[in-house]
Structure formats: structure tokens, C-alpha cells
Amino acid sequence: MTSGRVVPAESHEDTVNRFADLVAAFVALREPDEVAAFLRDLCTTNELDAMGQRWQVARLVDQGLPYHEVSRRTGASTATVTRVAHWLRYGEGGYRALLGPAAR
Strand, coil or helix: what is 2? Predict the structure, then answer.
């Protein structure tokens, strides 16, 4: 790393390792205030807002609301709503782990 810039991963393995380190950091946190402090230090305000918006979208899509209504309520683009809905249905199960079994 030079001049404050993060050097892009040189390989897929580097990306996988960075992700594994990040996951381990989250797992090590025990209290909600620790998670909040870590997220605030780690992410920009825009990144936090985008992640919070995607979480709102996932909850509303899971409730079965039409995509345009989800977009209206959250301010997310319909492209974002569609992308979140795709990951909710076909992703790694991260959203589902927090939302519980599918409503439908």
C-alpha cells in the first residue's frame, strides 16, 4: 500500500483471503456496539447507507411487495431492487439467515 491507496488484489486468491480476514473480524465482535463501531470505522457514510438500503429492500421484497413499491419506499433504483431480490432468492443464503424461512 502506498500513499493511502489500497493496492487492488493481484489474484482471486488475494480477494478470497481479504474476504476471509474481514469475515473473521466480524465473527470476533461480540456486542452490537462493537459491530457498529467497526462498520463506522471500516465504511464510508455512502457505503453504510447503501448497505442499509439494500437490507431494507431485502426485507420488503421478502414481504412480497411489488418492486416498484419497494423502490418508492426505499429510494432504491428498480435495478437495485431486482439485484437484491435475485441474491435473496439465489445467493449464498446471507439474507435468508437473517430473514428466516421464505414467506412464500
Answer: strand
